[in-house]
Here is the input.
Amino acid sequence: MRRIGIDVGGSTLRVGEVDVRSGTLAGPVDAIPMPAGARPDDVLQALAASPVLRAGEGAVGLAFPSVAQHGVARTAANVDRSWIDLDVAAAFTRLTGRPTVFINDADAAGLAELRFGAGRALLAEAAAGGPPASRIMVLTFGTGIGTALFLDGRLWPNAELGHLMLPGVTDTDGEGWAAASVRTRLALDWSGWTRRVNDYLRELHRLLWPDVFIVGGAVSEHAADWVHLLECRARVVPAVLRGHAGVVGAALAAADAAQGAA
Ligand code: BGC
Here is the structure.
């Protein structure tokens, strides 16, 4: 079975068709530049025009960098404020005629990693008597920091722990301190940036004590450059699905919702 997954990132909108039984892309991903201003009408219209979307059929999963509560965007940390309180699922259905499941982007990436990526191996190892993995936190480092919390493989949606304040950092939150975009903006080398990520991991761990962190986002394509520099009392493993986890996870969410409704 195939479903369309959409991942709205800070600078790029990605649309892909996903084989939801294997968690793999069924074809090339449309990468559309984020329209200037990132306003709802412009973004939704750019997505609706995607050839990949139009060629596919059935429900669509739309992953977005905000709290996504029952189809409605509730926050707008890195996008235009006019998204707040918009029923994005209904608006996209009106535009495309396609049933739409609206999901937080980190939650989508987390679902994909748990089912088909790094999390699958962790859960299998734990089930076979290996290191525990009942509490897994998936982190995505990009324009902001996305967080997805899993207890025994089940998601607690909309955890917004990228906005955690760190001890000793008074002028910004966790993502303002350690997102991948901060590395670019401040021209930090990998070790300079990972020192900041370590500050962030330390605080997250102190408060929530996960067994494992899965670290992802587009920056996980360079995992070999930085993941070994992380210091943390929990296990840390790189994400496996890399830049496409959001697209895959959005498609999974669409397929799961259709199944739940059946
Ligand atoms: C948003 C989250 C999102 C994360 C990653 C944060 O700024 O508040 O909803 O998951 O960025 O995109």
Observations:
- The mean pLDDT is 96.
- The longest helix spans residues 190-208.
- Residues 57 and 207 are 43 Å apart (CA to CA).
